[in-house]
Amino acid sequence: MGILSYLLILQLLWAALVSCQYEDYDFEDEYGGEPDQHPHYFNPNTQVQVPRFPFPVECAKECFCPPAFPLSMYCDHRKLKTIPNIPNHVQQLYLQNNNIEAVPAGPFTNATFIREINLSHNNIKFHMIDHGVFAKFSNLLQLHLQHNELEEFPFPLPSSLERLLLGFNKISRLPGNALEGLPNMTMLDLCSNLLDDSVFKEKPFSNMKNLTQLNLCNNKLQTMPPDLPPSLQHLSLENNSISHIPENYFTRLPQIIALRMSHNNLQNIPHNTFNLPNLLELHLGHNKLKQVFYIPRSLQHLYLEDNEIENINVTVMCPALDPLNIKQLTYIRLDQNKLTSPISSYAFFCFPLIRTIYYGEQNVTGSSPSQLRTPVFRRFLTPEEFQEAEDNHEMLNQETEEDHEAEDSYFHPYYH
Hints:
By secondary structure, the chain is largely without helices or strands. The protein is about 10% helix and about 10% strand. A 14-stranded mixed beta sheet has the order 1-2-3-4-5-6-7-8-9-10-11-12-13-16, with no helix packed on it. Strands 14-15 form a two-stranded antiparallel ribbon.
């Protein structure tokens, strides 16, 4: 019984170690803007009280395998030109920020339990990836290939994949079968590539039934992407050349929570375009809008900076008052428009929860940028909230134009 008890204790320690291995973290955007939460990186000065493996763990000599996280192998920031051999037990592999140019199948021969691979910030080209090297990983959940030299979409991929990051590459086309067989995909990041409207001909996203986040910012799109799955909740289209949103376009996307379309060529928006039941955040700054539009009940944050709006017609935004269904709008950003007077006080009956209207400087025709008498309107703030708003306003005034461009240029690949 003594031996059996010892074996049982070892098994319990192993189970506890594996459960501790995976932290419940969001893979937040590495590009700036919202608060970031990156994958855990080992800190040798941190004292981690985790049971040791009951046996030595194999590790590539070029990498580091922290005893506290024996299922992870850290090979990042080491100027590697090739991928080292991956031991069988490794589930999380970090190879970012190296000089890797190829992904051969050889180093992964024994790696049958891989769940996450990070190959971002390397020099990988599509033709240097062995065909099917990723497809064999039946447990792979996350694949990071952003900031490489990929000219094409890296397929085939395993059906287990949930998150795929391909931002900052040179991808210009999406073959019709590239995204087939990925029923578990929830997040796809294709920002900062060379995609144009031709990629939509084969309806590449239509069968991605579980996709909740699609990032297509910083490409060459001129029209709204058709045939998106109704499961979509976060859509990023900023920094393209889109000039029109078809009427009723979003009726097929009722789950949309956040929409970012800043830095496009939008001029007119149909009245009920954004009449969506779940929309919380809407970014339309840096366009050519001249008029406002209907505001749905759910919307909380509206960004309309740097447009050509001369007057805020509140009755268009809020045609009728409904005390039983109060509109949730709390923040509007309106700087760099052509306003000569503040928003009508009727707005505060329509939007009783509104706390901040940021007017900033206005681009009134025929004169230099000017400020309204009240550049920032605030109300209903507790002393703590007021101080926080003051601090945020001071930070906003200190930001440069480059800061704003950096903030608006990318949608979080792990936005929640």
